[in-house]
Amino acid sequence: MAMDSGGETVSGASQTLTLASESLNLFSEGISLVLSRWTALQMAVENQWGGRDSLQKSIDLADSILSWFSQSKGQGFGFRIWVSICVAV
C-alpha cells in the first residue's frame, strides 16, 4: 500500500482509495456546493416540488452521493469522474 502526501491510502490490486477525514469533509463540502449551484434542484427545493420535505431530500441526495463515493469499490474511478464534472461546472 502506498501513501501519498495528502494522507490518502491507495491499494494496488483493488484500486480502492480511502480518503482522510479532512479530505472527506472537503469532498462533502464540494458536493454541497455543486448541488447548491444546480438551478433545477434549487427551484425544486424552493417550490417544494418534492413535497414538504424537499430540503431534506436535497440533503439526502448530497449524503447519498458522498456515501456512494466513500463506500464503493473502485472509488478512485468514481472520484475522478466526479472531479471532472465539478471542474466542468
Question: What features would you highlight for this structure?
Answer:
single chain, 89 residues, mainly alpha, three-stranded antiparallel β-sheet, 4 helices, 7% strand, disordered N terminus
What does this 3D model show about the protein?
- The protein is mainly α.
- The chain has one domain (21-88).
- Helix content is 63%, strand content 7%.
- The chain contains four helices and three strands.
- Strands 1-2-3 form a three-stranded antiparallel beta sheet, with no helix packed on it.
- A hairpin with a 6-residue loop joins strand 2 and strand 3 (17-18).
- Helix 1 crosses helix 3 and helix 3 (54-71) packs across helix 4.
- The termini are far apart.
Rg estimate, integer Å? 15 Å
Residue share in helices?
55-70%
Strand arrangement across the biggest beta sheet: 1-2-3
Secondary-structure element pattern, one letter each: EEEHHHH
Regions with little confidence, pLDDT below 50 for 5+ residues: 1-16
Structural class: mainly alpha
> What percent of residues are in strands?
5-15%
Summed up, the domain count is: 1
